[in-house]
Amino acid sequence: MTDPKCIQYREAAHVSGKTRYIPDMELYRGTLTGYAVSSPHAHARLVHLDTSAAAAFEGVAAVISAADIPGPNTLAPIIDDEPCLLPVGGTCGYMGQVVCIIAADTSENAKKAASLIEWEWDVLHPVLTVEEAMIKEDFLFKPLRLKRGSPEGAMIQAPFRKKGSLEAGGQEHYYFEPQAAYAVPLHQGGLLVRSSTQNPTDNQRFAASLLNLKVSDIEVQAGCLGGGFGGKQAQANWTVAWSSLLAWKTKKPVLFVLERDQDFRITGKRHPFTVNWEVGFDSRGEIQAVDISMAYDCGWCNDVSIAVLHHCLFHMDGAYYIPHLNAVLYGCRTNKPSNTAFRGFGVPQAIAVIESVITQIAQTLGKDPVSVRRKNYYGIKTRNRTPCNMKVEHNILRAAHRQVLHNSDYFDLRKQVNAFNKKHACVKQGLAMVTGKFGISFNESFFNQAGALVNIYRDGSVLIHHPGTEMGQGLHDKMRTVVHRELGISSQYIKVSDTSTSVIPNTTSTAASTGSDFSGAALKDACDKLKKRLHPIALKMMGLEKGLLVWEHDSVTCKEYGKSIPFPQLAFHSYMVLESLSEKGFYKRENIGFSLDTMEGRPYWYYVMGSSVAHVELNLLTGEFRIPDVWIVHDCGEPLDKGID
C-alpha cells in the first residue's frame, strides 16, 4: 500500500519551484562556462581550423578541438560513427555538429570568442529527405527484415487487397531543462560530474574514455532531471563529455548548459518515417497477409536508431495476429541531427502503421473499424504468437476493448458525431480507437539488471540508493514506497539519495519503462536480506526462539505470541550487537533476446496492454482542433504507488 503519511512530496517541490536543477546549483568559486561551436553547414568537409584568436580572447580559459582530446574521439553508444568533436579533415553530418568547445568566465565572452574562430569548409550536397536517401541506398545499417509464413502467396489468395502509404514527421522532446552538466576536478584526481541524464553509466564511461582515464576515476551523479522522455538517454553524453574535457584542461569546474535554441538545433528528435504497405483480407475483415516497407529518417549517424528500429519491427503487429507478414525497415542517413530515443522508442510509429491498415480495411468493407479490430486481436489459446514467435501472455486486449467501448458509450457517441457532421460544413468531428500492446524490458539481456543499496541507521531511519534517475515520473517516490512496504516503516523515515555511479555501478539507462521493475526488485532483494539477518535478533529481543514476524506500522511484530518491538529499537540493538545494517540488492532478468538471423526469440519479458477512444474536432478552414474527450483503459498491474499511478 501507499503510505498516506508521505505521498508525492517531490511533485509539491516541482509546482512550488523548489526543485533545483543543474542550472540552479550553487557553483564552486571560479566555475567556468562552457560553450559549443557548431558547424554552419549541413554537409561539408572541415579543411582548416584556427582557434588561436579565440583562445587569446578576454576571459577565455581554454578552447578544445578534436586534436586536443587525450582518448578516443567518440561518443557513439552502439555503432562507432559519432565523434565527440569534428576533426580537421572530417565531414560534418548536419548543421549544428560541434567542432570545438570553449570555457570562459562568462557565456558572453565565450560567444564572442567563438566568433573569432577561423575555419575553411568544402561544402557538399546535403541529403535532406528519406526519399533521396532511399534512391542513393544510403543506409546506416543493413535493412531489418521480419518475415512470417508465406506473405506473397497469402496476399495473392486473399479475397481483398488494399495498398496504402503513410508519412509522419518528427517530434521535439521539449524537456523543461535543456541538456546540462557540471564537471568538477577532484583533488585526488578524476572528476565529479553532475548530469541531467537518464544514463549515468554511459556518461561515466564516455568521460573516462575521452580523457584516457579509468572508469572509476569519474563519478557521475544525477539529481532530479527537468524531463527526459528519451532525449537524455544517449545525447546527455555530450554535455558531460564537453564539460569534462574543459574541466580536465583548465583544472577548474565547468558548467555546460545548452541554450534552448542550441538544444533544438543540435539534438535529435523522434524518428520521422515514410511507409508503403499492402494488406490482404477476407470479407469479415480478418487479415490474411501484410507487406510493409518502412523508411526511417535516422539523421546523420546511428545514435540508438538500430535499437529503435528493432523495437518498431517487433511491434509492427500492434494488437493484431498477422499469420503472414513481410516487414522491411530501412535506417536512412540524412544530413540532419541524429534522431534518438523518444518515449515509445519506435512503437508509436509501428502502431500508426498497423492502425492505418485496420482503418483502410474497415473503409473498404464499409464496416466500423471497431469490428475489424475485434476480429483481428490476438487470441488466448490460439493465434497468440507474435511474428517473432513470442507468446502473448496475460492477454487483456479484448477485455480492454470492451471496457473502453462501454466507458465512452462509443456507439451512441458515434451517432452524435454523425449528426454533428451533417449539420456543420466547416467543422467536423471524428472518433478514433487504438488498442495496443507494448513490450517491457530491453532486447539485449545484459541491460536487464540493477543493483541497489539500503542503509539503516541507528535511529531507524533509512537511506536508499538505486540505479534509476528521477525525471518527474515519480520513480524516487515509488522506490520509497517499495521500502516502506518491505520494512514496514513510514515513508517519512525513508530518504532516497541522488543517483551515483560511485554507489551503484554499472547502471542501465532509465528507459523503456523499466525503472520501477529494475530498481524496485533490487531494493526488495536488499530488504529481504536485511529482514532475514535481523529476524533472529528481533525474536531474541522479544524473548522468543521462533516465530513469524510481520514488518508494519514502524514495528516488528510476532502476532502469534502478541509481542512487538519498535523498528528504531531493533535498529539500535542490531548495531550494538555488531550486526550490519547495510545491504545491497541485485536484480537480473535472464533469457531475454532474439536471433539477428531469424528475428525470432523473446525480445521482452512481458507486454502491457490497453485501449483508448478519442473524440476529436477539426476546423477544416483554419486547421484548429480540439479534443473534447478521451477514454483510456490500461492494464496497470498492481500499482507500486496509487497516488502516482
What's the short version?
Helices cover 28% and strands 27% of the residues. It is α+β, with helices and mostly antiparallel strands. The chain has an 8-stranded mixed β-sheet with strand order 3-5-1-12-9-10-11-20, sandwiched between helices. It has a 5-stranded mixed β-sheet with strand order 7-15-14-13-8, sandwiched between helices. A 4-stranded mixed β-sheet has the order 19-18-17-24.
Gap between N and C termini, in Å?
A: 12 Å
CATH architecture of the largest domain: Alpha-Beta Complex
Largest sheet properties? 8 strands, mixed
Number of domains: 4
CATH topology of the largest domain: Aldehyde Oxidoreductase, domain 3
Q: Find the count of extended strands (DSSP E, 2+ residues).
A: 28
Side-by-side strand order of the widest sheet: 3-5-1-12-9-10-11-20
- Low-pLDDT ranges: none
Number of helices: 16
Radius of gyration: 28 Å
Q: What structural category arises from helix and sheet content?
A: alpha+beta
CATH homologous superfamily of the largest domain, by name? Answer: Aldehyde oxidase/xanthine dehydrogenase, a/b hammerhead
Which percent range fits the helix content? 25-40%
Beta-strand content estimate: 25-35%
The mean pLDDT is 97
CATH class of the largest domain: Alpha Beta
Name the shape in a single word: globular
